[in-house]
Amino acid sequence: MDSLSKRILAEKENVEKALITLEKALKRKRKTTSELAAIGTFLHNIYSGIENILKQILKEKNIKVSKFESWHKDLLNLSVTNKIISLTLSDELYEYLAFRHFFVHAYGFMLLEDQLKDLAENISRIWSEFVLEIKNFITTTENNGLQES
After folding, report:
1. Looking at CB atoms within 10 Å, which of 11, 110, 111, 148 has the fewest?
2. Phi and psi of 58, rounded to 5°?
3. What is the pLDDT of residues 32-73, one digit of tens each?
4. Domain residue spans in the chain?
5. How many angstroms separate the CA atoms of 12 and 19, rounded?
6. CB 4 within 8 A of CB 57
7. CA triple 39-12-66, angle to 5 deg
8. Does residue 149 have a pLDDT over 80?
9. Could you give the CA distance from residue 37 to residue 144 in angstroms, rounded to a whole number?
10. Average of pLDDT values for 132-144?
11. Does residue 1 have a pLDDT over 80?
12. How far apart are CA 46 and CA 43, in angstroms?
């Protein structure tokens, strides 16, 4: 468990750096296409960090995530099924999963400021909820033994 905590902490530190940089980018009044692409990158980084934490926890529990194209969605579903995160949080994360898919397959100049703004304004709150739910999960599993499913 100690190793898992260290991996989660390292990922958490990276996500929080991305959040700080995102907040700085959001403060600019007029945003260029490059700045919008940067905001998209930070949102993508933050969501990837969330996925990385979930993957580490599932791996620690010896639960395999499918290798199919839908593995990102499967990851969220498995995380809910295994009580790592709540269904409510998962529903909110689906919006970022959809953005992740768009971001990976689109061009930076296709990003729209209004859509990015909505995602960016909520990500700090969602991150805080995620961290709390992960902390609660780890505390519970430390008391019950992580390998139990």
Report:
1. 148
2. -60, -40
3. 999 999 999 999 999 999 999 999 999 999 998 888 878 999
4. 2-144
5. 10
6. yes
7. 85
8. no
9. 44
10. 87
11. no
12. 5
Find out whether 134 and 57 touch, Cβ atoms under 8 Å: yes
Span 2-144: which CATH code? 1.20.120.580
DSSP reduced 3-state for 101: helix
CB 79, CB 90: distance < 8 Å: yes
SS3 135: helix
Tell me the two tokens of residue 36: 């919008």
Structural tokens at position 53: 């934490």
Residue type, 92: E
Predicted pLDDT at 145: 59
User: What is this structure's pTM?
Assistant: 0.89
- CA angle 135–73–144, rounded 5-degree value: 30
Question: How many CB atoms neighbour CB 87 within 10 A?
Answer: 12
